């Protein structure tokens, strides 16, 4: 390809780091190729996205007068919405004393 | 009535026979279970089956009916549910290794409704991982095969639901549609699938892909069956703040009633007199010749019934794919941040939390999921947001404008659903962009939030089914069912899928 590629391998490695996805060198190479192909197709949107066009973040306004559908302002109960502590942590990979167990967060370099 | 006949009945026919006492829900449920056991080795539409639960529900419904309790027409009619929908006590994986073994502690709102009326749940259907794909080849649990030809894709992401319905493994199924994941599988399996208006079916309990695009909907073999099922799952829900109050089903907006009306007008001479049908100028190319020929024949048949065919100009549709592949990955990268190895799903250990997260996500997400998360992370990152995500949102406005101008002139728009018939496994798996092109005709509806339905238009290349898509303005899902049922009434019924034994 004559034109300069949009994504470099270094850039893809940086994005993977931001997204917290560990990739090996081969995977980074493959992703770099793929993302450059996809980028060509999507960059086209900039042609028509001129300043006078408003952005749409949501496809449809809700027809609720307040804009959102909200529940009555009453406390939830275990009978309807709340999970017990046991239910809430049942799917966690590791727990301790009814809490999610996470690896160390601050690590010295 | 033997099991082979039972499984070939539509949901409406099953409903009437169960209500009339000719069949019990247990008989019907057992017939579908037998069929699943027979053809699953070839089709692999399900990730898990839940036969014991299904039989239990069927027995309860039969008991209630014996006791003279007034029940919903679909009570006792079995259903399959896409594995992206959270089901209490039943493993929910969304097709990902990340969630292998996860047993949700709650039901999605639509599952609550299905359980309330007593539809036996047969199992959870296969799909591309986190609903990203058009072939089920991205599922971590193996691919689903198309009942028309077992060497071909059943579409995606909801290939499992569509294949289950096509193979007579279930009369009804639930799908979800972010860019075409209900409609494209329907087209390539010769079935019906509808994406309701955004906000008409609660998104609470769907494993979120792209929150401003996702919508759950029905899969079936006839239009009226989909209408019946949408009436069940549609409705406002305070668990989903984007749900629409107008989605409350009433006698006036019943999709079922509208489909009945459609079947009537579709079978009358001049039944469509005065109806204006839009054909999109920008959707005349890029379709396989026979797929497009079947579409043209439908348009001609509509004209014969008295409809007026009007060409509508949608100049921004050519930017829809680009906008979609910015908005969807951006929202997905944010939604899938929840899979961090902390609260649910799998964990791959690491020396720190950061390292554990990166290890987990690196090992448990498939390649397509990683690709989209990276794309979305980039599109949302500082310095690129305006050029990418911001531009895509502007295109969204332009596409809505195209639709608004078109619907000012016509009652509904018709397009072919998918560009080709079902392709062979492996054909597009290494070319992400070629795979993305499958959704070229279905994506605009998601970007604009309007409803869309695909129904069979006949057999095309290789004797495989093709679909026609019906699009109507937002919040007029009933009209979509009316027009779709009219077209169904005018179209020859497809033969049975040829890839399976009887």
Polypeptide structure, described:
- The complex is a heterodimer of chains A (109) and B (502).
- With 109 residues, chain A is mostly helical.
- In chain A, 30% of the residues lie in helices and 4% in strands.
- Chain A has helices at 9-18, 25-42, 85-89; strands spanning 95-96, 99-100.
- In chain A, strands 1-2 form a two-stranded antiparallel sheet.
- In chain A, a hairpin with a 2-residue loop joins strand 1 and strand 2 (99-100).
- Chain A is flat.
- The mean pLDDT of chain A is 88.
- Chain B is α/β, with parallel strands linked by helices.
- Helices cover 40% and strands 11% of the residues of chain B.
- The two termini of chain B are 16 Å apart.
- Chain B has helices at residues 3-6, 11-19, 25-43, 51-66, 109-117, 159-166, 183-189, 223-233, 255-267, 289-304, 320-335, 353-364, 367-380, 386-407, 432-436, 443-448, 477-490; strands spanning 46-49, 79-82, 121-125, 172-176, 192-195, 216-220, 276-280, 308-312, 412-416, 452-459, 465-471.
- Chain B has an eleven-stranded mixed beta sheet.
- In chain B, a hairpin with a 5-residue loop joins strand 10 and strand 11 (465-471).
- At the A-B interface, helix 1, helix 2 and helix 3 of A face helix 11, helix 12, helix 13, helix 14 and helix 15 of B.
């Amino acid at each position: 390809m004559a034109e300069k590629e949009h994504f470099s391998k270094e850039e893809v490695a940086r994005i993977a780091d931001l997204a917290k996805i560990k990739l090996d060198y081969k995977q980074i190479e493959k992703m770099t190729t793929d993302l450059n192909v996809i980028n060509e197709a999507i960059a086209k949107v900039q042609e028509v996205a001129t300043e006078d066009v408003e952005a749409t973040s949501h496809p449809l306004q809700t027809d609720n007068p307040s804009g959102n559908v909200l529940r009555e302002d009453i406390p939830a109960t275990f009978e309807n919405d709340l999970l017990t502590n046991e239910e809430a942590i049942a799917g966690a990979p590791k727990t301790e004393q009814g809490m999610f167990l996470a690896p160390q967060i601050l690590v010295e370099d | 009535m033997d099991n082979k006949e039972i499984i070939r009945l539509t949901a409406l026919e099953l409903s009437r026979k169960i209500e009339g006492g000719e069949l019990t829900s247990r008989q019907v449920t057992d017939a579908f279970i037998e069929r699943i056991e027979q053809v699953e080795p070839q089709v692999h539409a399900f990730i898990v089956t839940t036969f014991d639960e299904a039989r239990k529900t069927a027995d309860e419904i039969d008991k209630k009916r014996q006791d003279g309790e007034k029940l919903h027409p679909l009570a006792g009619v079995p259903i399959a549910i896409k594995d992206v929908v959270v089901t209490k006590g039943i493993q929910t994986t969304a097709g990902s290794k990340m969630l292998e073994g996860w047993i949700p502690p709650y039901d999605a709102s639509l599952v609550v409704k299905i359980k309330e009326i007593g539809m036996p749940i047969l199992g959870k259907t296969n799909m591309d991982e986190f609903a990203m794909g058009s072939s089920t080849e991205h599922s971590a649990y193996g691919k689903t095969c198309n009942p028309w030809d077992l060497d071909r894709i059943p579409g995606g992401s909801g290939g499992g639901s569509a294949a289950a319905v096509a193979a007579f493994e279930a009369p009804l199924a639930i799908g979800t549609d972010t860019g075409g994941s209900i409609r494209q599988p329907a087209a390539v399996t010769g079935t019906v699938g509808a994406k309701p208006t955004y906000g008409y079916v609660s998104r609470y309990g769907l494993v979120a892909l792209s929150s401003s695009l996702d919508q759950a909907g029905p899969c079936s073999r006839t239009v009226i069956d989909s209408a019946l099922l949408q009436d069940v799952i549609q409705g406002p829900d305070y668990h989903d703040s984007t749900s629409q109050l107008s989605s409350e089903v009433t006698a006036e907006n019943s999709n079922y009633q509208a489909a009945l009306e459609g079947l009537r007008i579709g079978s009358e001479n001049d039944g469509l007199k005065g109806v204006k049908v839009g054909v999109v100028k920008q959707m005349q190319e890029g379709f396989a010749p026979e797929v497009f020929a079947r579409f043209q024949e439908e348009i001609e048949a509509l004209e014969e019934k008295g409809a007026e065919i009007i060409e509508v100009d949608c100049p921004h549709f050519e930017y829809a794919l680009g906008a979609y592949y910015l908005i969807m990955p951006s929202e997905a990268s944010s939604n899938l941040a929840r899979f961090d190895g902390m609260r649910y799903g799998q964990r791959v250990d690491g020396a720190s939390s950061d390292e554990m997260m990166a290890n987990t996500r690196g090992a448990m997400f498939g390649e397509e999921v990683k690709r989209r998360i990276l794309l979305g992370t980039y599109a949302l990152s500082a310095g690129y947001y305006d050029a990418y995500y911001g531009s895509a949102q502007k295109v969204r406005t332009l596409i809505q404008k195209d639709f608004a101008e078109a619907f000012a002139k016509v009652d509904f728009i018709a397009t072919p659903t998918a560009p080709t018939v079902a392709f062979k496994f492996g054909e597009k798996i290494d070319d992400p962009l070629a795979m993305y092109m499958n959704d070229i005709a279905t994506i605009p509806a998601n970007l604009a939030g309007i409803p869309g339905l695909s129904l069979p238009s006949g057999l095309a290349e290789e004797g495989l089914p093709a679909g026609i898509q019906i699009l109507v303005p937002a919040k007029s899902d009933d009209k979509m069912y009316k027009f779709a049922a009219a077209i169904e009434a005018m179209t020859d019924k497809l033969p049975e899928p040829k890839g399976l034994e009887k």
